[in-house]
Amino acid sequence: VRQLLAQALQAGVTYEGGDVGSLLEEARRQLVETDAVNKQVFVITDNQAVAWETLKEGENRTRDNAEETDDPEERKRAAEAAEIPVIVVDCNRAPKPNVALADVEIKTTIPVAGVPMKAVVQLRNASSVEQSRVIELYLNGEKVAADTEVKVPPSDTAVAEIVFAPSRGGLQEGEVRLAGKDGCPADDRLFFTIEVDPAVPVGIVVTQRHEIPYLDDSFYLERALKPINKPNWAIRTSVLTVDELATEPLVNYKVLYMVNVPALVPETAARVASFVEQGGAVFWIMGDEVDADAYNDMNEQAGRRLLPAKLNPVRMPELGGERDSWSVSWLNQEHPALGYLVDPPSLYQSVLVYKYVPCDTEEYADAVVLARLDGEGDPVLLQRQVGRGSVTLLATSAHVGWTNLPLRPIFVPLAARLTFDLAGVAPAQHQSIAGTPLVVQLEGAMSAGGIEVLPPSGAVIRPELESEDGLPREFRYEDTHDVGIYRFRFVGAGQGTQIAYAVNTDPDESDPTKQPREELEKRLGETPVVFAENPENMAATFEMLRKGRSLAELFLAAVLIGLVFETFISNWFSPKEKDQQARYIPGRPRARPSPATSG
C-alpha cells in the first residue's frame, strides 16, 4: 500500500487521454483469473465524460466479446467478467476557471520566407464566466508576433488570427502559448510545424525556345513560378524541350509542366507515364500545338496513365454570336490548393477564356474537376490520381492568346499552390495527439541509410527498421507520451531530408463535462454499479459490499489510494498554483490511430 501511495504522490498530469473504459475491461478480465471470493472493481475517477467514451452505449463490451467467440471457456469467462460489480468513487470537484488552446492551423498562399502567414487559433472556455487571455506566438524559439488578447464567452469557443512572416526557409518549429495562469497549464500550449521554401524541382517542357522570350508559351508560367529573383526561391525551374525530355533523368523532378507540346512519341510517353506511376506529377497545358485525337491515342497507348479525361477539338465562340468568351464560374474549394482562392469570387470570376479544349470525363470516373466555365459548365481544370502520382490538365493556354488568366491576380498564387500540392510539399502540418503512434511511409531513398528520431527531450534515437521483402515500407514510432516536436531524419536520403510532427494534448481532454450517472449505467448495461460520491466516507459503501473478509485489506488500499487520487485527478482542472509545470507519466496509447504520413 505504501508503494502505491508513493507512486500516486509522485505522479503528475499525463498528456495522454484517459481511457477508463478499456482499463475497466482489463481489470475485470484479470479478476476473472483469480480465486478471490469477492470480486469488485473500484474505479477512482473524476467522471470526466470523455474518459468513458470507449464504452459502447446501451451494451456491455465484455458481454459482446463473449458472443463473438466460439470458445465455450472464453465465452464463460467473458460473461463472468461482465457480472463483476463496479464501484465508482467520484472525486469530481468544481474546477477552477480554465481556457484551453484547442487547435492551431497555419494558412498561407505560398510557404515562402518573408511572405505573411496566418495562424488561426481556436480557444475553448470551460468555465461559466467570460475569460480574457493573451496569446503568444513563437517560431523556432523566438517570439514572432505581437501579443493578441482574446475574449472567450462562457462555455464556448473563440477564434484568433495571428499574422507572422518566417525570416528564413526550411523546417519551422512553432508554438502557441497562453500567457498567465489558469486551471490547467497542460492545455496552454500548442505546437505546429511548417516547411518554408521547400525548393521544389520543376521541369517546364516546351516545343522550342524562341529568340524573343515573350513569345514562349511558358513565358508567363516561368515568371509565376519564380515571381521574385532570388537564389533560394521555393521552386527551382528548369526549361526542357520535348527532344531533351526523351533523355532527361525524370527522377530529378517532382512536377513536369507540359506547355502546349505535341503528343509525345511512344517511347517518351512511356517514360513520362512511369514517372507518374512512381509518384511524379504531370501538368498538361493546352494550346495550338495540341491535337485532341493525337493526345487521346497517346493516352490509350500509355494505358490511360497520362490524361485525366478524353479531349475533344478546340472550342471558341461562334462568329457573330452573343458570346465572345467564357468566364471561370466555379472553383473546387475542397481541394487543398484552391481553398484559399475562392474568396472573393471575383478573384477567379474575372478570368476570361477565349479558346479551350473540351474534356469528356465519362470514361474517367476518378477524375476530379477543379474549375468550371460558365455556360454549359465545361471543366477547365481537372486532376486524376494515377498510381502514386497524378495528372492535371488546364483546358486553356498559359499565354494571352487563349485567355487572360496569366494577367489576373490569381495566376501567381494558383500556379504556386498547385505546384506545392502536386509535389507533396504543400504547407502540410503533421499533427498528432499524445500517446498516438506516428506512422511514416518510407519512399525512395528515405530508408537507405536508416532513420534518426529526435523527440522533444532532445535525445537522438536510432531504431532498427523492419523490412518487408527486404525493403522497409513504413516506420512506426510508439513513444509519443510527451508533447512537442518530433523530428525524423532520414540518413543517406539527401541533405535536409526530414519530417517533423507536432504532438499535442487531445483537445477533448480540456472538456470537464461530467458523465451523468444515468448515462454510465446505460453504458455498463447489466453490470451492477455502485456510486460512492464521498471518498472521505466509504463506510456505507463497504457495508453494502461486505460479504466476507478476504478482500478487506484490498478495499482499504483502494480507499487510501482514492483519497490521494482525489487530489491528483481533480487537480487536472484545479492544480495548486506552485505546480505550473506539467509532467508526464508513461501510459498506454489511446485507441485512435494517427493518419500522419510523409508528404
Low-confidence stretches: 548-599
Rounded to the nearest angstrom, the radius of gyration is: 30 Å
| Name of the level-1 CATH class of the largest domain | Alpha Beta
Shape assignment: elongated
Number of helices: 13
Strand percentage: 25-35%
Number of domains: 3
CATH fold category name of the largest domain = Rossmann fold
**Structural class by sheet pairing and helices:** alpha/beta
- Helix share, percent: 10-25%
Mean pLDDT across every amino acid position: 83
SSE layout and pairings?
Blueprint: H1 2-10, H2 20-32, E1 41-45, H3 61-67, H4 72-82, E2 86-90, E3 99-107, E4 117-125, E5 131-139, E6 142-143, E7 148-152, E8 157-164, E9 170-178, E10 189-196, E11 200-206, H5 219-225, E12 235-241, H6 242-245, E13 255-259, H7 266-277, E14 281-285, H8 292-301, E15 310-311, E16 326-331, H9 346-349, E17 352-353, E18 359-360, E19 368-373, E20 379-386, E21 389-394, H10 411-423, E22 431-433, E23 438-441, E24 451-454, E25 474-477, E26 484-490, E27 498-504, H11 517-524, E28 529-532, H12 539-545, H13 552-570
Parallel strand pairs: 1-2, 2-28, 11-12, 11-13, 13-14, 14-21, 22-27
Antiparallel strand pairs: 3-4, 4-8, 5-6, 5-7, 5-9, 9-10, 15-18, 16-17, 16-19, 19-20, 20-21, 23-25, 24-26, 26-27
Based on the model shown, name its key terms:
disordered C terminus, 28 strands, Immunoglobulin-like, 3 domains, 599 residues, alpha/beta, elongated, five-stranded antiparallel beta sheet, 26% strand, nine-stranded mixed beta sheet, Rossmann fold
